Amino acid sequence: MESRVERLPSLTGLRWFAALSVFVCHIAQQGISAGPDVAFGLGHLTSLGSLAVSLFFVLSGYVLTWSARDGDSVKSFWRRRFAKIYPLHFVTFCIAAVIIFGLSEPVLPGGSAWDGMVPNLLLHSWLPDAYIVSGFSTPSWSLSCEMAFYLTFPLWYRLLRGTRASQLWWYAAGLALAVACMPFVARLLPDSAEVVPGMPLRDMWFTYWYPPVRMLEFLLGIVLALIRRQGAWRGPGTGTAALLLGGAFALNQVVPPMFTLTATTVVPIALLIAAVADGDLRGRRTGLRVAVLVRLGAWSYAFYLIHFLIIRYGHRLLGGDQGYARQWDTLAALGITAAALGVTIAASAVPHIFAERPCMTLSRGRRPPQGPAPDFESRPHRAPLERV
């Protein structure tokens, strides 16, 4: 018998580990260690970033579906989502702009500091241009996808909410298969230069950055939450799902680069999210409900947005004008990494407390009166999760 809980805190704790994975990916890409063996080992960690982003997208669909409220409206839903995502993004956008123009440097080698400035206001991942997508606050490209998810969620929810669980299982399988096949579909695009070895620009844009393609993972999260709401979830526990995800990450070390973005990991990611939520609902231990992990998970959006600025420009600060090429021995590199992590965690608390949380509070306003559910919602089923 399920225990009644007000939140699913383990999913919030899981968000922290996803954000930390992105941090590790960008530290590995920054190349601060001079040891060739260490640099080689760090190279194997870069796919943690794409794994984490995929987890965020599936998790977003799951949480929005599970926490849909009775008496809500499309307008109020959009208002809350905008208040959640945009103010903090704008704050970090302004910080990035001050740093970039203050240093008079390009966003990427060979690119202008103006590249991506306007699209970075949440249009950039729609455009197949690496300078634009990675301009200014680099991790924010994913927010273009999230905005597309939020705008279409009421439609998807209305279409899927009455679907029987037996049919939803087929939808879940089809969506996971579609995600896995995207690298093959991308090969139909015109040839383009490689962004990194084995990843042509157009292929990477279509598979990894393009919002309609990433919508598949968001829809998978919606379907999984609907299956669980009907009490029809049958899947592995948290430990088994975590082992499967670890196996998928190991597989990423040998498959072609394009398949490391989403194809190999989407199924274990989906299983892990569903297993973690199911564990909370059944009162089982997940290892993710520890208070510090839940707190860090609540800060994870701010952490995600500011960590790259601290890593990149901290490297510049330590190395001088041409500091991005500077490297340190293994022990010093580990110390710098630990310091960057500590600074990022401390810094992420500030925008969360003074920007993200107040904007979310204002956006909620008065709670809507109880009554018939709006077109995109259904009956109450659980209290809301920690908002993503």
Automatic annotation (TrEMBL):
Keyword Protease: no
Transmembrane segments: 12-32, 38-64, 85-104, 130-156, 168-189, 209-227, 239-255, 261-278, 290-311, 331-354
GO terms assigned for molecular function: acyltransferase activity
Domain spans labelled Acyltransferase: 10-346
The keyword Transmembrane helix appears for this protein: yes
Renumbered residue ranges of the record's region Disordered: 362-388
Keywords: Acyltransferase, Membrane, Transferase, Transmembrane, Transmembrane helix
Source superkingdom: Bacteria
Pfam families: Acyl_transf_3
Amino acid composition bias (Basic and acidic residues), ranges on this chain: 376-388
Protein name: Acyltransferase
Organism: Streptomyces djakartensis
